[in-house]
Specification:
The complex is a heterodimer of chains A (about 450) and B (about 500). Helix content of chain A is about 40%, strand content about 15%. Chain A is an alpha/beta fold and about 450 residues long. Chain A has 2 domains: about 110 residues, Aspartate Aminotransferase, domain 1, CATH 3.90.1150.10; about 260 residues, Type I PLP-dependent aspartate aminotransferase-like (Major domain) (Aspartate Aminotransferase, domain 2, 3-Layer(aba) Sandwich), CATH 3.40.640. In chain A, the strands form 4 sheets. A 7-stranded mixed beta sheet of chain A has the order 2-8-7-6-5-3-4, sandwiched between helices. Chain A starts with 7 loop residues before the first helix and ends with a helix. Chain B is an alpha/beta fold and about 500 residues long. A 7-stranded mixed beta sheet of chain B has the order 1-7-6-5-4-2-3, with helices on both faces. Chain B has a 3-stranded antiparallel beta sheet with strand order 10-12-11, covered by helices on one side. Classes of the chains: A alpha/beta (about 450), B alpha/beta (about 500).
Chain lengths: ~450, ~500
């Protein structure tokens, strides 16, 4: 057993120094009927055998990279610079604890500070925590914060927000008396303003919408934001963070909270996790933000130092009065985001965002020309868009899958009103040849 | 007196050799690029059509511009300012800072896993579904529960899910009065926070003089409004709740459920199972007991296990086996709903399974045996130098107190900070709240006897310093990049971004 430094001799001597004859004396307080249950599991193996065993199982997977994938819908395959994995694989980072002892954690603390700074720039807001479990939980906690903040009963959430985000929010709110109402989308896939105006009243504490929304559409949120604020509610937005480099940022829409999935910024698909939820807000809400914050200060010798700050919000201090129960978060993923942004740099990020716009639009325009397919929503997009097919999506997907193509995400299950619709994503990882191939296949079916 | 030259040298020394605390923004220079992606090929007119001006970002984000070698050096130098399990001993109570095997990382980075999209067709993800399925079987066998959800991202999220399940269970029984959750005063902060977040009223009960749940207190607190008792066993004093069978009987008789906070499961592998003790809901911290790394604060994973009668409330989807196929079963009409996107922190689940298969049941039993031996060894060796308020055999951790050192004006935190000078991370201090000047020590099974002996020597030296030169402790650490940052100032005047820093400077 390679992970145990104690030798048999050590154990014997230590037990005798403790003053017991056998290990069992140490667990004497465990009631006899409970002690040492028989557990039917196999014994340990060598690392060599282990690796063979696991690789054999993993070989039963066929990954998105082994196929031609146009799947996105909340989890995106972007290019990740090699430097990211090398840096986050440093034991000094990934085997460190939460930086409660600032003197022994300046590395982690400074990277958190830099992550906060970068994400504040990208979202156009003042304060960013580090971090949430994922986009969906960040979204749920954002709505909870807003409702608790202005002591109102209702959250209006756009139906065009990611279905999993809405589902998770519903679960989080199920223990409270808060009500959730869905704002429908109109024929062009955007938020239905007429319906929204009718739904908005003084009981509404929070309005939540996406841009880009789940259909990939970048929405004009000026009016939504204005109306929300006029009614004294808080405005929560969610969206693909890389889009904010090219399109208007949540700050520019005057969002009170911006939240969502930061996975697209340097984190591999990994079958849905671990990812990292970003959560940005305005200065006026800083004392209510859930989760950890790093701040800059000075040490006793006047040196620049970083610490976890405003901890009076957190569970280890406030217990049942805390702003959230979050403790363990996704810190290492936040570090990956920080390193990704630093490595890509200002120009690299902008360029990547534009590449996404280019690939997705170019693909949309070509699919639109194919017979048997329609593009029902024509608005501006970042890197994904909706296609309507003449055939059933399940059949279409199956045919394409057999040809090694993941065509996208079928929308019917979450949106019965969107029969035969699916979501297609094209990031910068798709080449011209990939797009050609896909369009050709679609045309043939 | 420090001369000007010495001052200059000090500044230089801070700037070179990786000691600089310069921000990456301060190292940025316009025009530096890394060229990691191809350029766009579209005409500017086309891009303008795709990004209409009303939707275009107006204020450019201020982001760093550096070359790749500079970025790598920046972060690697920062990494050197951290203590970590790979470089230091962490006697950090309740945190289980054990060694994180390297093979775990290789498996999680494996291209056959890392490039799996969560929405791929089931037939293309049979490998990872099988791993989820087998992992669940292992967790069931180790805990004595009937079904696990792998969805929660962390222990606290597992607790939240547990609260949801408790509420759903009572509701299904038309028992809507149960709005209270009981926690002992020695519990982790997340317990009351999770219960409150989900709208439960928290009732805190005092521990008895043996550091355990006081049965009389518990009887008084429990009634037909009690939804659940949240308990850690062994508790945060490192003591086994030896009246657990009486506790579970009392709670169940009054219609309440029993929740197990698995933060201290490292004591129990092969020793005892929460399922056998009568717990109805269990969460495990895979980043503690099952060796997945702490990552500087996360990510972890907090799977939740339940008894048969609660199975139908688990979040969807669950992984089932139909014939020789693994399927994602989303048809759970009584489910509390989803608590997280997709299926959980898959990469962490894969790491934990790698660890379990490596050790096997014999190795996992050895984990708890050695963890308990190491903790008792340290307890025994430190007892006398430090007050150990509950003088009995502990499980995987124990709590000492700096009460004796207090009379010299030295606090637990000073001892913690001084330990850093000797290359040891600090123990957990001031927790649990019921011990004055608490110093909570959990050595884990992956530390050698030599390291423990060294730790004892240093603790004895620090005790001596407390008596002879308390100032040394109060100003500690002396050898780290910074010492005693001004936390009050940081909270009073929060500088949380580079932009804050710049605007405060000007």
């Amino acid at each position: 057993m390679s992970y145990f430094p104690l030798t048999e001799e050590d154990r014997k001597q230590m037990l005798s120094e403790i003053g017991v004859k056998s290990f069992d004396e140490l667990i004497g307080k465990v009631p006899a009927g409970l002690r040492k249950p028989a557990i039917d599991l196999p014994p340990g193996v060598s690392e060599f055998e282990l690796k063979q065993y696991l690789e054999n199982i993993l070989s039963q997977n066929q990954t998105a990279r082994e196929m031609l994938s146009f799947l996105g819908a909340g989890s995106y395959d972007h290019y990740i610079p090699s430097a990211v994995r090398h840096i986050i694989s440093r034991g000094e980072f990934y085997t460190a604890y939460t930086p409660y002892q600032p003197e022994a954690s300046q590395g982690t603390l400074q990277t958190i500070f830099e992550y906060q700074s970068m994400m504040a720039e990208i979202t156009g807001l003042d304060v960013v925590n580090a971090s949430h479990y994922d986009g969906a939980t960040a979204f749920a906690e954002a709505c909870l914060l807003a409702l608790n903040f202005n002591q109102r009963q209702k959250v209006l959430v756009a139906r065009s927000v990611h279905p999993e985000y809405r589902r998770v929010m519903k679960t989080y709110l199920s223990g409270t008396d808060f009500q959730i109402e869905e704002i429908p989308f109109n024929a062009s896939g955007s938020l239905d303003m007429d319906a929204f105006r009718k739904m908005l009243d003084m009981n509404v504490g929070c309005v939540a919408a996406g841009s880009p929304n789940f259909f990939g559409l970048v929405e004009d949120l000026d009016e939504v934001s204005d109306l929300t604020h006029k009614h004294g509610a808080l405005f929560v937005t969610t969206g693909h963070p890389l889009s904010y480099v090219a399109f208007r940022s949540p700050g520019e829409w005057k969002a009170d909270i911006a939240c969502g999935e930061a996975q697209p910024l340097g984190i591999p698909l990994s079958f849905g996790g671990p990812y990292v939820g970003y959560f940005a807000t305005t200065r006026s809400l800083v004392r209510r933000i859930p989760g950890r914050l790093a701040g800059m200060t000075k040490d006793r010798n006047g040196r620049r130092a970083f610490v976890l700050t405003l901890q009076a919000r957190e569970q280890h201090i406030r217990r049942e009065k805390a702003s959230s129960n979050i403790c363990t978060n996704q810190a290492l993923c936040a570090l990956a985001v920080c390193v990704y942004i630093a490595t890509m740099g200002k120009e690299g990020l902008k360029n990547t965002a534009l590449l996404n716009v280019e690939r997705a639009n170019s693909l949309r325009e070509r699919i639109e020309k194919l017979s048997g397919y329609q593009v029902p929503f024509k608005g501006a997009i970042f890197n994904e868009f909706v296609v309507k097919s003449k055939r059933t999506v399940a059949l279409l997907f199956e045919k394409l899958y057999k040809k090694g193509v993941l065509a996208g995400y079928s929308l019917e299950k979450d949106y019965p009103e969107l029969k035969n619709h699916f979501l297609v994503t094209a990031t910068e990882t798709k080449t011209e040849e990939d797009l050609d191939h896909f369009v050709k296949l679609l045309g043939k079916i | 007196m420090i001369t000007n030259l010495e001052k200059k040298e000090k500044v230089m020394e801070n700037q070179i050799a990786g000691k600089s605390s310069q921000l990456i923004f301060e190292k940025s220079k316009p025009g530096k690029r890394t060229h990691l992606t191809p350029n766009t090929k579209s005409e500017p007119a086309e891009l303008r059509r795709w990004i209409p001006s009303a939707l275009e970002r107006k204020r450019e984000p201020h982001l760093p511009e550096l070359s790749e070698p500079e970025v790598v050096r920046h972060f690697l130098n920062l990494s050197q300012k951290n203590y970590s399990v790979d470089t230091n001993f962490y006697p950090l109570g309740s945190c289980t800072m054990k060694y994180n095997p390297k093979i775990n990382e290789d498996m999680a980075a494996h291209p056959k896993f890392a490039h799996l999209h969560p929405y791929q067709p089931e037939e293309s993800v049979q490998g990872i579904l099988r791993i989820f399925y087998e992992l669940e079987q292992w967790l069931l066998a180790l805990t004595g529960m009937d079904r696990f959800s792998l969805q929660p991202a962390a222990g606290a999220q597992g607790e939240l899910l547990g609260m949801m399940i408790a509420r759903a269970f009572h509701r299904a029984n038309n028992d809507t009065k149960r709005r209270k959750v009981i926690v002992p005063d020695s519990s982790h902060g997340t317990n009351p926070a999770s219960a409150a977040l989900y709208g439960f009223e928290v009732v805190t009960i005092k521990s008895n003089e043996r550091g355990r749940v006081d049965l009389n207190e518990l009887a008084r607190a429990t009634n037909d409004e009690t939804a659940c008792l949240m308990l850690t066993n062994p508790n945060t004093l490192g003591l086994f709740e030896d009246e657990i069978l009486e506790i579970q009987k009392m709670l169940h008789q009054k219609g309440s459920l029993l929740y197990y906070d698995g933060a201290n499961m490292n004591a129990l592998l092969g020793v005892a199972r929460p399922g056998d003790m009568g717990f109805d809901i269990v969460h495990l911290n895979l980043h503690k007991t099952f060796s997945t790394p702490h990552g500087g604060g996360g990510p972890g994973a907090g799977p939740v296990g339940v008894k048969k009668r609660l199975e139908k409330f688990l979040p969807a989807p669950l992984v089932d086996k139909k014939g020789d196929k693994y399927v994602l079963n989303g048809e759970l009409p009584d489910s509390v709903g989803k608590v997280k996107s997709f299926y959980g922190n898959s990469g962490i689940l894969l790491r934990a399974y790698t660890y379990m298969r490596k050790l096997g049941i014999d190795g996992l039993c050895q984990v708890s045996r050695d963890a308990i031996i190491n903790a008792n060894y340290l307890r025994k060796k430190l007892n006398g130098t430090f007050v150990v308020p509950y003088p009995e055999y502990c499980m995987h951790e124990f709590v000492a107190s700096a009460e004796a050192q207090n009379s010299f004006g030295v606090h637990a935190t000073d001892i913690a900070k001084r330990l850093l000078d000797f290359g040891f991370y600090a123990p957990t201090v001031y927790f649990p709240l019921i011990v004055k000047e608490a110093i909570m020590v959990e050595p884990t099974e992956t530390e050698s006897r030599e390291t423990l002996d060294q730790f004892v020597k240093v603790m004895e030296k620090i005790d001596k310093e407390a008596k002879e030169s308390p100032e040394t402790l109060r100003l500690a650490p002396h050898t780290l990049p910074v010492s005693r940052p001004d936390e009050v100032g940081a909270a009073r005047n929060p500088i949380l971004t580079y932009r804050d820093f710049i605007s405060q400077k000007s």
